[in-house]
């Protein structure tokens, strides 16, 4: 498709001025096709993934639609996470820089109501928020939707996955029927089409998302790796390929924390991003990653929604993605703007079926990568040091340090000894927790442990790299199998009775609301995720009775849930929660 300049689109001069200031001349496919349709005022469905510029595709028409002489809320944007809501707000503010009198507010769980009350009272014509907090403000009469011209659902598929369907439907019911409804989603599931059928009138559909990974700038490889050797293989790949900025994806919050800890122990500038982190901490993490102070960002798929960072050298699929489309989302964050990128995926023998599924879905062959040997790792580090020395010598070296060399020589050290000591200090001792043959998933541990000599003089048992085990406190349970975040599925979780799942990692909480209060599983999930920053997938079985209910949450999150839900409402009704007896 031929590139379209923003100046060729039906947008105002103040938009063009802001876009030019942001450094953009050409629109992306979803912007070029979506902006004219949305500007015409009809309902619209855009299928596009993160990083395709969809925020501007709906943000520009939203700004154009606002009447600044009125302080009422005229545009509502719903997002699945706080991170995405904040990013959307910031992007719209940049695009609206030269439209005077336009105010944008973001409302989401985890921030005080008072600050949001003030922003809404001030008169915010565009409101961006998460469904749970939007419902709270509607119930408190602090958000009025009677003047809504345009309702936008961003990442609609993820909102449905998180159990927000009924909230979305209820929110839209408060807006005028003659409003314009715009929906963006990475997938076109039956649930998405059902929402569209109910709330849209003859929507125009634009699909710019292709499951085929057609970006020739991305090199894709998989590595057959033992679970406990993933960290060793990843750090070897980082060093041998001289990677500067990386994204690492894991499927659970506990795995994110574990990976970050192991990377930091090894001296890498790594930070994590997941649902248990306070908003202030998340913002700091992203700022450091964008600035390059943090070079490795480790995240879950949900936490990474909406992250758009340029210049990522490589994406590591530390865990095989749980959904096929996640693979496309993940690797699409590298190989941008004409630059080359790499996508690495670690699999075990039992995950080869998942690999074939990804290849069928993306219609792309993923080559098996060769794990760098210890000898290659040492050679690479030494050569990199030699290159740095040559660059320094070429740039010129003054005589400032001659006195140090003379002092050491007078004390009896030869120049060769001095140089060797300096090199050791700079390069360091190259260590490996595993022999080369122990990295592959085909390796089988001999009884009593393999006591082969370790490279670099390390004699720890190869089954416990850096003193951690996969099946330990922070890793998976059940014989070391990986613990997975689970997708919310109301029909499976809603029970007429029951005694819980029996999972030792989960704690059952009592809720004072039940069927008589018209409480459904998605209400419980939506309230907890909105108020406590816990991912919907982490929430376990839900049992609903006439006058009360039970919900399972991870043991590590019990205190957070009880404190976060204190004095809060579910489905506009006051709720009390406590550990079930």
Average pLDDT, rounded to a whole number, is 82
Portion in beta strands: 15-25%
How far the N terminus sits from the C terminus, by CA atoms, comes to 62 Å
Within the CATH hierarchy, at the fold level, what is the topology of the largest domain?
Rossmann fold
The CATH class designation of the largest domain is Alpha Beta
Order of adjacent strands in the largest pleated sheet: 5-6-4-7-8-3-9
Integer count of domains: 4
The largest sheet is: 7 strands, parallel
The count of DSSP E runs of length 2 or more, i.e. the number of strands, is 23
Query: Uncertain spans, ≥5 residues at pLDDT below 50?
Result: 448-498
Architecture of the largest domain, CATH level 2? 3-Layer(aba) Sandwich
- What Rg, in angstroms, do the CA atoms define? 27 Å
- Secondary-structure content class: alpha/beta
Overall 3D shape: globular
Discrete helix count: 20
Which short descriptors sum up this protein?
581 residues; alpha/beta; Rossmann fold; 4 domains; 7-stranded parallel β-sheet; 20 helices
Detailed description of the structure:
The protein is 37% helix and 15% strand. It is α/β, with parallel strands linked by helices. The protein folds into four domains: 4-207, P-loop containing nucleotide triphosphate hydrolases (Rossmann fold, 3-Layer(aba) Sandwich); 218-368, Rossmann fold (3-Layer(aba) Sandwich), CATH 3.40.50; 374-394 and 405-438, no CATH class; 490-579, Alpha-Beta Plaits, CATH 3.30.70. The protein has a seven-stranded parallel beta sheet with strand order 5-6-4-7-8-3-9, with helices on both faces. A seven-stranded parallel beta sheet has the order 12-13-11-14-15-10-16, sandwiched between helices. The protein has a five-stranded mixed beta sheet with strand order 17-19-20-18-23. It is globular, with a radius of gyration of 27 Å. It starts with a strand and ends with a strand. Mean pLDDT is 82; it is low at 448-498.
């Amino acid at each position: 498709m031929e590139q379209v300049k923003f100046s060729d689109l039906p947008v105002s001069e103040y938009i063009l001025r802001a876009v030019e200031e942001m450094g953009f001349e050409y629109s992306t496919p979803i912007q070029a096709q979506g902006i004219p349709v949305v500007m015409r005022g009809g309902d619209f469905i855009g299928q596009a993934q993160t990083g395709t510029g969809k925020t501007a595709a709906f943000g520009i028409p939203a700004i154009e639609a606002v009447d600044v002489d009125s302080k009422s809320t005229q545009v509502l944007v719903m997002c699945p996470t706080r991170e995405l809501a904040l990013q959307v707000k910031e992007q719209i503010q940049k695009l609206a820089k030269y439209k005077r009198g336009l105010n944008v507010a973001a409302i989401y769980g985890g921030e005080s109501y008072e600050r949001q009350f003030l922003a809404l009272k001030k008169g915010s014509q565009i409101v961006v928020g998460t469904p749970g907090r939007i419902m709270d403000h509607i119930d408190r009469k602090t958000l009025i939707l009677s003047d809504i011209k345009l309702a936008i659902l961003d990442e609609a598929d993820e909102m449905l996955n998180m159990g927000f369907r009924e909230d979305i439907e209820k929110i839209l019911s408060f807006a005028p029927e003659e409003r314009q409804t715009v929906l963006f989603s990475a997938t076109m599931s039956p649930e998405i089409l059902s929402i569209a059928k109910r709330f849209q009138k003859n929507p125009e559909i634009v699909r710019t998302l292709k499951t085929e990974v057609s970006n020739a700038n991305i090199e894709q490889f998989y590595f057959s790796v033992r679970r406990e050797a993933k960290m060793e293989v990843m750090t070897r790949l980082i060093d041998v390929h001289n990677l500067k900025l990386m994204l690492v994806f894991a499927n659970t919050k506990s795995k994110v924390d574990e990976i970050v800890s192991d990377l930091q122990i090894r001296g890498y500038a790594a930070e994590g991003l997941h649902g248990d982190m306070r908003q202030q901490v998340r913002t700091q993490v992203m700022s450091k990653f964008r600035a390059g102070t943090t070079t490795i960002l480790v995240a879950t798929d949900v936490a990474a929604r909406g992250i758009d960072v340029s210049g990522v050298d490589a994406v590591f699929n530390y865990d095989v993605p749980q959904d096929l489309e996640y693979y496309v989302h993940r690797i699409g964050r590298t190989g941008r703007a004409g630059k080359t990128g790499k996508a690495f995926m670690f699999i075990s023998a039992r995950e080869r079926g998942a690999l074939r599924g990804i290849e069928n879905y993306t219609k792309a062959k993923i080559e098996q990568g060769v794990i760098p040997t210890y000898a290659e790792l040492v050679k690479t580090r030494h050569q990199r040091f030699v290159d740095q020395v040559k660059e320094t010598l070429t740039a010129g070296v003054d005589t400032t340090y001659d006195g140090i060399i003379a002092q050491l020589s007078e004390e009896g050290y030869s120049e060769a000894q001095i140089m060797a000591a300096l090199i050791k200090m700079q390069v360091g001792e190259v260590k490996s927790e595993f022999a080369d043959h122990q990295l592959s998933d085909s390796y089988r541990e001999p009884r009593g442990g393999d006591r082969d000599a370790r490279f670099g003089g390390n004699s720890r048992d190869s089954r416990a790299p850096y003193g951690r085990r996969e099946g330990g406190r922070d890793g998976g349970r059940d014989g070391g199998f990986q613990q997975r975040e689970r997708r919310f599925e109301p029909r499976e979780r809603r029970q007429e009775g029951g005694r819980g799942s029996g999972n030792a990692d989960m704690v059952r909480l009592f809720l004072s609301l039940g069927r008589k209060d018209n409480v459904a599983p998605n209400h419980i999930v939506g309230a907890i995720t909105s108020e406590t920053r816990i991912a919907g997938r982490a929430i376990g079985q839900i049992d609903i009775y006439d006058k009360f209910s039970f919900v399972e949450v991870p043991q590590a999150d019990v205190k957070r849930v009880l404190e976060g839900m204190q004095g809060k409402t579910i489905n506009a009704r006051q709720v009390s929660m406590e550990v079930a007896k």
